Amino acid sequence: MQIIRLSNPEKEPITYSQAKAQLRVDLDTEKELIESYIIAAREYCENYQNRVYYTSNFKLITDTVEFPLEIPRPPIQSITSIQFQDKDGDLNTWNSENYIADTTGEFGVIRLAENYEYPDITFAESNILQVTFVAGFDNIENVPQRVKNACKLLVSHWYENRTPVVVGTISTEVEITIQALLGSDRVVPV
Fold it and tell me: Tens of pLDDT along 48-95?
């Protein structure tokens, strides 16, 4: 199974102004650098937690067809489409009447409808099922404060330590702090 991000979020968990305040920076001479750290911090936190913080589009690709199918990377907003790949490599969109997309819980789950019909195709050997979905909070204010704090700490750490090795310090303190902030809501793939 693989998950491909199709679009980046329009907003980040922390703003440039919030990052500047954390860094105690007054000038905008390093705005581009700080903004890149904000994006990198969000990416790090999302990957650590296996979550999505703000509305983004994804595609899940799998070699098997098994239902119910749990959609990773919560919270799931909606299922856009389900497609099957045939042996010629063509994608065939499955009629939404054949499945039920349950996004009421934290994880999205796709279940077969009562009178479902599988597509009348010969499946490809790999990448058979492709699910396009929307994940993330629909309001950036819903991102938990501990995630925002973890992003601020990462931005601050990277800004202050611009080389990969810092001599004379213990780097695990930052890692332990980030893990403590993000660990309680971490989704561990099974």
Answer: 999 999 999 999 999 988 899 999 999 999 999 999 988 888 999 999
φ, ψ at 163 (rounded to 5°) = -110, 155
Number of domains present in the structure of the chain: 2
Q: Are residues 126 and 156 in the same domain?
A: no
Domain extent for 72? 56-135
Strand order in the sheet with 76-85: 2-5, 56-62, 129-135, 76-85, 91-93
| Residue type at position 128 | I
Amino acid at 30: E
Residue with tokens 């856009």: 80
If asked whether residues 60 and 121 sit together in one domain, one would say: yes
